[in-house]
Amino acid sequence: MNLDDELRSALQRQEPPPDFAERVMARVAAAPPRQAPRPWFRLPATRWAMAMAATVLLAVGCLEYRRYEGERAKSQVLLAVRIAASKLNKAQRKVQMISHRSNS
Amino acid sequence: MPEQVRPTAAGWNFESLVRQHQSMVFSIVWHILRDRPVAEELAQDVFLSLHQHLGELESPEHVQFWLRKVASNRALDVARRRLRRPMVSLENAPEPVSVSDPGDPMLGTALQKLVAALPEKARAIVVLRYQEDLDPAEIARVLGIPVGTVKSQLQRALGLLRQKLARSLGEIGI
């Protein structure tokens, strides 16, 4: 006995019932049309994630802008102080020169 | 072999595909499950799924490969779900009582029963090997497992079948 041949014979293809194809076609006709998968950017979860990301981005942008404005104001005040200090130094030097001359 | 159904400009002729492949799909499921009503239902489900995925399939060979893969895997899923119920393993399965001459239809029935008692993965491998005449590399692609696993499981399954059959034939004096 050849087991390979016996298995081939035992496991031959078998025909399904005669109305098999008709029943498949009836089920296909009755099945609801398959909806095309939504693109990723239209999925509710993606929309929520995008809204959250936009909100976070906006909040971070506002904070960053306020920080930048504060830094700019601070550097302007420092510049003004530096200019005033240099003017005062010049004036002080002139006063010292005049008083030195009048004393001599 | 019947001529393969090919897609036209308008797409596939689905009914022709069903008629061409119905015996292949039904037999894969039937030989793995040995339950005619379930096999019919599952084979119909496979074709329904084919109808939904037809746009993704490019050639008749692709359709045939897809059908073998889906039919085998769905039958394996059902077989695994049934495993939760107590089942008799091949080693403990009762010997077929009415084995007669090789080539006899009774031997075929006995072999079908022994194949049905194999562990489910080995059963699918034997069905694809002997019903569909696939080589181990093709079986590995269909089932998504390594070729080495296919070869070892096939050898083990054949050894078990030989043992069981020899015991049965010995008992009735053939």
Element layout with pairings:
The complex is a heterodimer of chains A (104) and B (174).
Chain A: H1 3-10, H2 20-30, H3 44-103
Chain B: H1 14-33, H2 36-53, H3 60-83, H4 105-116, H5 120-130, H6 136-143, H7 147-171
Task: Explain what the structure shows.
The complex is a heterodimer of chains A (104) and B (174). Chain A has 104 residues and is mostly helical. Chain A has helices at 3-10, 20-30, 44-103. The model of chain A has no long low-confidence stretch (mean pLDDT 90). Chain B is globular and about 55 Å long. Classes of the chains: A mainly alpha (104), B mainly alpha (174). Chains A and B meet through helix 1 and helix 2 of A and helix 1, helix 2, helix 4, helix 5 and helix 7 of B.
Task: Please name the defining characteristics of this protein.
heterodimer, A: 104 residues, mainly alpha, 3 helices, 76% helix, B: 174 residues, 7 helices
Short description:
Chain A is an all-alpha fold. Chain A has helices at 3-10, 20-30, 44-103.
Please give the largest β-sheet of chain B. none
Number of strands of chain A: 0
User: Helix-strand pattern of chain B, N to C?
Assistant: HHHHHHH
User: Please, how many helices of chain A?
Assistant: 3
Order of helices and strands of chain A: HHH
Kindly state the mean pLDDT of chain A as a whole number? 90
Strand fraction of chain B = under 5%
Q: Could you give the distance between the termini of chain B?
A: 36 Å
Shape of chain A: rod-shaped
Strand count of chain B: 0
Q: End-to-end span of chain A in angstroms?
A: 139 Å
Helix percent band of chain A:
over 70%
Subunit organisation of the chains: heterodimer
**Strand proportion of chain A:** under 5%
Radius of gyration of chain B using CA atoms only? 18 Å
Number of H/I helices of chain B? 7
